[in-house]
Here is the input.
Amino acid sequence: MAKLLSLLLLLFIIIITAEGTKSSYGVYEESNTVKLFVFGDSYADTGNYLSSASYQPPYGNTFPGKPSGRFSDGRIITDYVASFLKIESPAPYSLRNSSDLKYGINFAYGGTGVFDTLIDGPNMTTQIDTFEELIQQNVYTKTDLESSIALVSAAGNDYLKFLLENGNNTKDVGGLTTSMINQLSLNLRRIQSLGISKIAMELMEPMGCLPIVTELSSYEKCNDTVNMVAMNHNQLLLQAVEQLKMEMGESIFFTLDLYNAFLSTIESMQKNHDGMNPLQPCCVEGIFCKSDVCDKPELTFFWDGLHPSQNGWYAVYQLVESSLPQLFEEKNR
Here is the structure.
């Protein structure tokens, strides 16, 4: 009898191993096959901008307990998407020589954009160039890429540069928006052509609610004019993504609606009086935090003048999480 039970147990293990691990969405997949490749700016960067404020205290106080290159007190959207995929956050490209690359690579670089911005960092085209070089060097195989996912986040810094150069005048911003959407469409096509099976494109956040903007109203209200720039950008981006889906015949492109996730969270916190005023950052000494931070960042939405706190990012993630099961859907032929 004991021998029979042993044989049955062995058979069960063999069947489970052969079938792989079943995800909660009904798709079978082998463990540790999913890789995440990230392109964009500080909303997705987990450690590439080595000389930035993100590597200085008090950044990283909540997680991992010290500065780690994230523009927040803790985890950001990249970390939560990786967690959803049941993998560790992919290694920053800048730290590739001392990191495990089996979960993918994060090319996102704080302060950069679709085009060149105010900092000397790799724009999105250059980030994709670097990714292509790694493929040519056989760092990742075709099989690796077929089971991989791309997270794309960029645009805010392009608009920030425009506003600074035009005295905060949004009158002629439409031309920039058109150019950016055209380039983003090319970038998404190119990422797909390199072999990525699924691409998640983040919609732009409501820029008029960022603390560097709401500071002018003593953090009382968002700026509707600046938010309209983001709304127009998102509308054109959604149209571009739909066009890509129609042309390629495969549902490999989808969007994460940061705009409404930000607004919903801010409005909820204002209504329920949860924690601090959600429009006021944890530190108010400038764009980036230095030393004077709030006592309870876990009750805030914004960490500094531009970026959500870990609490803010987690709230946003919870609202966009319903879009993520698309990562496991079979491509439509």
The two ends are 50 Å apart (CA to CA). The chain is about 40% helix and 10% strand. Residues 20 and 268 are 41 Å apart (CA to CA).
